[in-house]
Amino acid sequence: MTQAGERTASGNLRVNGDRLLSRLAALARIGATGDGGCRRLALSDEDRQGRDQLMAWLKEVGLETHVDAVGNIVGILPGETAGPAVIMGSHIDTVGTGGKFDGALGVLAALEVIQSIKETGITPPRPLAVIAFTNEEGARFQPDILGSCVWTGETSIEEARAIRDADGKAVGAELDRIGYAGRVKPGFLEAHAYLELHIEQGPILHAEGGGIGAVTGVQAISWTEYTLTGDPNHAGTTPMRYRRNTSLAAAGIIAFADALTHDIEGLVANVGRIVTEPGNVNVVPGRIVMTVDMRHPIDARLIDAEQRMADEIARISAATRVEIASRELARFPAQPFAEELIGVVEQAGKALGLKTRRMHSGAGHDAQIMATVAPTAMIFVPSIDGISHNPRERTEDADVVAGANVLLTAALTVAHARPRA
Ligand code: GLV
Ligand code: MN
Ligand code: MN
């Protein structure tokens, strides 16, 4: 493994892999769940500790640090010119049962890339920046990818601050509480390009012999919450025909979501959260709150799925006499990445002797939002057995380091490229 800012025999710069792996391990100790996983829900105490650690590293490396009004953390290495920066990053919040790599890899690899370049003593032609976006996961506050949406202006800071979690705590109050409602305006740093390294979170690279994914774009995402209202009543005495049974209606929704995936090629659907009330074995549940997550690489197919689900909801409601209210939690269109930058990632992978293939992202990422304001691309590294959003999420050390070297090579290429017209 190469050391700090070291060059190979052919003169090419490589990251310090040991330093990156040791920072990943250190961040994973914050919010460690004891089963190999991490729980750093956005704006929780664990997220604050993770942020404090990241800020300490950014300062240690000597970067100019900023926290914006929605808590996005930015570290900048100035370039020869003060213009738009090559921004690299991801997020450090996790889902409730998260792993060590989702998000953390992209942020810490970006920091490592910038540190390795800084250690050469050569000033890059344009600024290089690392960013950790707030609430990418959407596990606590919906919608997800919130920090990047505020960064690009898609969502206002007022809208973001007003979003509440399931306990009624608002983003704004939680940002204030953990001390990360910063002063600078989100989006204060213009992006010449945005690059994000991430684990694949799916099985393809691992199953197909490893290597690097040059990501072509992110599929369209639709999250809906349904609130089902019936009559809570005695489960022994109430004849079936008298019931307004929310669990029966919920079962219909779950089965229909799955049936849609058989009908619409490429559609994925998930019911990830079901809360029944009162939740007793002998009470017909009077209320159920449940979520449906549907995704498709083609916008029109997802719109079709949404329409068919809405029709089925009306049919189920009429058949069961259960009232069903729906609320959109998140909705993002399919987002292709910049062809030129996908090519840069592909070339970087190949130049490093890595098997490199183009692939689509099944997961949502901050990159899909950054792609609306700047040329953007992502690099995927393999997830062992395709496991993610799970404490058993793992990526081989060699793949972590290879991914960071692809990020370094791509960032240097982009930093030296001509300004955009
Ligand atoms: C983000 O992790 C997603 O749900 O894709
Ligand atoms: Mn992620
Ligand atoms: Mn995730």
Task: For the structure shown, list the relevant keywords.
421 residues; alpha+beta; nine-stranded mixed β-sheet; five-stranded antiparallel β-sheet; binds glyoxylic acid; binds manganese (II) ion
Summarize the structure.
With 421 residues, the protein is α+β, with helices and mostly antiparallel strands. It is 35% helix and 22% strand. The chain is elongated and about 80 Å long.
Q: Please count the beta strands (DSSP E, at least 2 residues each).
A: 16
The low-confidence runs, each spanning 5 or more residues with pLDDT under 50, are none
What percentage of amino acids are in beta strands? 15-25%
- Rounded to an integer in angstroms, the radius of gyration calculated over CA atoms is 23 Å
What is the number of helical segments per DSSP (H or I, 4+ residues)?
A: 12
Largest sheet: 9 strands, mixed
Distinct small molecules bound, one entry per kind: glyoxylic acid, manganese (II) ion
Give a written overview of the molecule.
The chain is of the alpha+beta class and 421 residues long. 35% of the residues lie in helices and 22% in strands. The chain has twelve helices and 16 strands. Strands 1, 2, 3, 4, 5, 6, 14, 15 and 16 form a nine-stranded mixed β-sheet that branches. A hairpin with a 5-residue loop joins strand 1 (64-67) and strand 2 (73-77). The longest helix is centred in the C-terminal third of the chain and has 22 residues, at 299-320. It is elongated. Bound molecules: glyoxylic acid (GLV) and manganese (II) ion (MN) (2 copies).
